[in-house]
Design brief:
single chain, 198 residues, four-stranded mixed β-sheet, three-stranded antiparallel β-sheet
Length: 198
């Protein structure tokens, strides 16, 4: 809902592209059309082994709740109550009833979301096995590889489809998704220049 509010602030004719390499990021922009995802025709494929070390990171819900309760001194198990107590009007819109009702009335807009995985999946981090390299997001790395190999511009749809293939070839089980209008699905990723004939 917070991202939807940002998208709804855009000037007419502008778009906002979000590349989210985080767990459960599928559908992050509320009300955008699913172009590639669990309900679309792009199928999951078999995975292979990878030499990179894969790490899923998360903080257990109970640990977060315990920490918030220690800050607010409230005894409720309702996360939203703690968030509103701590952050007031700066808390996420999803915890503010009036804002949530307002956003539910708004329709799709010019948001473009390339998510690292579906809403029910985790997005892997990678640690290169050699040379003491730094960790990085698997999806971000796949997008970078795709762009490097395809100079001259790819559509949002092409970037996600090709990044899915890269991840599959490296043995990752996450499935990047694309959420946006039909027009934006075929628009150049981040307004890259299109290939020119020589």
């Amino acid at each position: 809902m917070d991202f939807r509010q940002l998208v709804n602030r855009l000037a007419k004719g502008a778009s906002l592209t979000i590349l989210s390499d985080s767990c459960h990021s599928g559908g992050l922009i509320d009300k955008e059309k699913e172009q590639i995802g669990p309900s679309s025709s792009v199928q999951k494929g078999p995975t292979s082994e990878t030499s990179d070390t894969l790490t899923n990171k998360n903080i257990p819900y109970d640990s977060i709740l315990h920490h918030l309760a220690s800050q607010t001194k409230a005894t409720t198990t309702e996360m939203g109550t703690h968030m509103l107590e701590l952050f007031g009007s700066c808390a996420s819109l999803s915890f503010q009833t009036a804002s949530r009702e307002l956003l539910e009335m708004l329709g799709p807009d010019e948001g473009i979301l390339l998510s690292g995985c579906q809403a029910d999946e985790t997005s892997a981090d990678m640690s290169p096995g050699q040379g003491g390299g730094k960790a990085y997001g698997a999806f971000s790395n796949a997008v970078e590889m795709v762009l490097r190999e395809n100079e001259g511009g790819l559509s949002n749809r092409e970037v996600v489809v090709r990044a899915r293939k890269v991840l599959q070839s490296k043995g990752f089980e996450q499935h990047p998704c694309l959420y946006c209008s039909d027009e934006n699905a075929d628009a150049p990723f981040l307004w890259q220049p299109q290939k020119t004939e020589q």
